[in-house]
Design a protein that fits this description.
15 helices, single chain, alpha/beta, five-stranded mixed β-sheet, six-stranded mixed β-sheet, binds magnesium ion
Length: 454
Amino acid sequence: MRRLFGTNGIRGVVNQDLTPEFALKIGASIGTFFNSGDLIVGRDGRSSGPMLMDAVISGLTSAGVGVIDIGLAPTPAIQYGVSRIGARGAVVITASHNPPEFNGIKVVGEDGIELPRRDEEVIEQMYFKETYRRASWNELGSIQKDESLLDIFIEGILEKANGDIIKKANLKVVVDPGNGVGALVTPYLLRKLGCNVSTINAQLDGEFPGRRPEPTPETLTDLAKTVKALDADLGVAHDGDADRVIFVDEEGVIHWGDVSFALIVKKILQEKLGKIIVTPVASSKLVEDVTKEQGGELVLTEVGSVIVARKLQELNGICGGEENGGIFYAPHQFVRDGAMAAALMVELIAKERRTLSQLVAELPKYYSYKSKIECPNDLKEKVMERIRNKTERYEPITIDGIKIVLEKGWVLIRPSGTEPLVRCFAEASDAQHAKELGKWGVNLVEEAVINSSP
Ligand code: MG
């Protein structure tokens, strides 16, 4: 059977993959799956959002499920709202960091986390076999509008942050939501916490004129310059649906997700809020170093935000994080949340009374090397098996791909889930070693591809 849901819901190009007809039928299938009760429905700021959301709502209500329409909101606000409002789940119309021509449909369960694969399969079956329910005219789902959720969400974060300490520090922060829905939350939240907030790209625009919705070193140059020009303490950037956050220090240096995650882990473990930290196998050794140093326990998972969230929930962990800027703070919710992470970061800087660049300088420094090697999809399994056999003596970690940990660093070889590629990451405490390890990994893959080809 064909698959519709990928690792982060259904994604596609609007009116090619994602037509209103498709959204209507998938809405009916989702509604049939939940069968009764109310679902929250909300969306990010994409131009196609209203069209797709109306079609999804039409499908949901046709199957007899009630809808609480909260309109525009960051994905984590919608996820947070599920338990707060007492809904059965949520449907989020978002394509996160993808370009403007994309959109997507995410289905969230009662616990605020995306549905497990087996439930997605049930929905897919109903879609393909057209076995979704059509309720009779007097059993159609109702539609209520609710505009209170963003305030509830902001209040929820304010409860978890130390407002007194933050207020005293009088921090100057520049927020760059990238024309996305983070603009509806993060500037207001940080002002309420007593920060002096300026914004760039904070007008919602489905064409993302300010920058692409994915925060990368290339797309955040305006933010870095603004932080410097305004002599600010911190820059905060989100992706299109604000579940991720990337920070810029007072010198205008952009720090990648595992650096900010390591700082937040250090803070949380020092405060003895919990012990278990969850991160994918691809994260920097930095996270492991900090966790060990502070007496925490690190659990590695496969790459994927839903996997990290589920693991955190299952182990009742305290915090999770990904190198792309996803930070999961369990006392707030198990899923990644860019606004919550921004609050944790301002609290950290305020509490430590040092600049972000100083705090980063205290962490061990690692260098990384990244490369990708072409590999036809049908050869991937063979290629990985060959590499596994060849590297057996290093006792690799095989949670996701093959990770070989050596004294001077590590290499991770992972086939891409979507493209005909195998990716190779390496990390070491000096740049030369990182490059050497990376090249060694690339050689292993190239050799295996040649020897696996028919
Ligand atoms: Mg996102």
